[in-house]
Amino acid sequence: MTMVAPEPQLTPVFSYPESLAHVPTHYCPGCTHGVAHRLIAEVLDEMGLREDTIGVASVGCSVFAYRYFATDFAQAPHGRAPAMATGVKRANPDQLVFTYQGDGDLASIGAAEILHAAVRGERITVFFVNNAIYGMTGGQMAPTTLAGQKTASSPKGRDVATSGAPLRMSELLAQVDGAAYVVRRSLHDVVNIRRAKKAIRQAFEVQRRGLGFSMVEMLSTCPTNWGLKPEEALSFVRDEMVPAFPLGDFKVPAEMQERPRGGRAAAASAEGTAP
Amino acid sequence: MAVELLKGNVAFAEAAVRAGCEAYFGYPITPQTEALEHMAKRMPALGRTFVQAESEVAAINMVYGAAAAGVRTMTSSSGPGISLMMEGLSYMAGSEVPAVLVDVMRGGPGLGNIAPAQSDYHQLVRGGGHGDYRQIVLAPASVQELIDLTTLAFDLADRYRIVAVVAADGSLGQMMEGAELPPMRDLAERPDWAVTGARGRAPNVVSSIHLDPEELEAFNHHLQAKYATIAANETRAEAHLLDDARVAVVAFGTSARVAKTAIAAARAEGIAAGLLRPITLWPYPEAELRALVDRVDALLVVEMNTGQMVEDVHRIVQGRVPVRFYGRTGGVLPMPEEIVDAIREAVAVPGGAPSPAAQEVPA
After folding, report:
1. Which superfamily does B3-193+206-234 belong to?
2. What's the pTM?
């Protein structure tokens, strides 16, 4: 009698999300677009919505988002993703529709489209990846560029007197009645990444319940155009961007607000609440 | 269906509803706003989509989204708004999605005025947006034809996955005349390429990006082949009293309608005049025009602009027959007597200088 050793029963603890396509991305080392993509894909998997989702890609580094998600996707002109998503959603009211936009796309050329999508309370979810710079075109000043920050088009640093101060879109959009859920998160460390994932799930829930427009802003890195190493870029987000773009919940529907639980959770929550 | 007294703007909007338009996106602009107002009433009542967009830029991109999702969709506007839509029209050409656009043309350039004009010809026929692309352009000359060509525009747009434009003008949009609406059609099924959620199938992507130059070149050749097929199958023109004509007027839309009155007057005084009326401005009825070259003594192009379509006429006839031009612009309509004068001149000196009337500045 031959003894056959039983195969070890391994439980996978980490795998490739079904909602992400198995292709290499073009993102630079240390860029947090990949993290944001993965979080969205994980949430779609967990909600079982991959086949009921339509993404709308924007123009910028995330222009190829349609290659990386295993969902239906449309690709919009620069800044127009919220308008295009409006058409997609109105034609497919039962589908989950999201846009994925950078700060040049959303806060500059697409300022009108994002504002009025919120005004109409479009049942779409917007992922706003804010890295304070135009990445795809090689590091020019964006509306979100920090005061004094050097970029290819602000070589002496952003001069607030002539170029204005950084535009805080989440605070702006939270003022709009049609916006149901507007929060800002950061992708610079594990704790914040986990909070971002939770917000992504909540934003999709807001859309599924038909409560209105939802947006998750994610502070992100651009090591290439910032001229920083990946770990320095993460520190830049923590030390320079978070003070200029406070993390927090700017608008959350009453039925989704959590009660303070005391202890560490309450402290974390307080830390993450906008003034 | 019975003949009703219908305003042009309402007529084409209702024709769109009956052709199965499921989503209308628009922005108010004179002289087409009655179309938007009609859709604001009709579309929600039918459970369909009406959105008043924040701008024409947004409106055309909403159309792009609904078209990507595979529903029949449209917008309507006039010159200044059409200019803002050029971005979206180029993207839609690049991603081959079908949609209908109605341009109720007004006087330009700039804010111009709200009176009828045909000065968006270059913008609509030559492309307007960036890149090597075409869109089907249909030119109605009556309220009935506004209805019929709007219906046709939806069918052609779907058949060829292309933007189909109805090039009307302020007088057609604002006039009321008897016309018959078609019956209500059933809504079409979604095409298999549309973004509807990838349930039980591989994901669909609607995009106009081809980063690799050779891939983009191949895509452009694919588009050109499609355009050649459209040109072969979908060119439309009306020949009016051309069989014995010595002078052929070439005019579209409202200009052609005025020209018909002028041609009747010219014939009453013994001048054998006729009319070639392009119904498709793209594809242009080149064969029909070329066939006139050896049969007439002169061509007279009449437009409500300073001479845009006449460039196509020159390109096609290649100097083999004299081409004269008469145009009124700035929102001024040509009068039949003015066109009769131009016809008389064409008979007197077929190869003469351009009509002085064309350069006449109204007092």
Report:
1. Thiamin diphosphate (ThDP)-binding fold, Pyr/PP domains (3.40.50.970)
2. 0.94
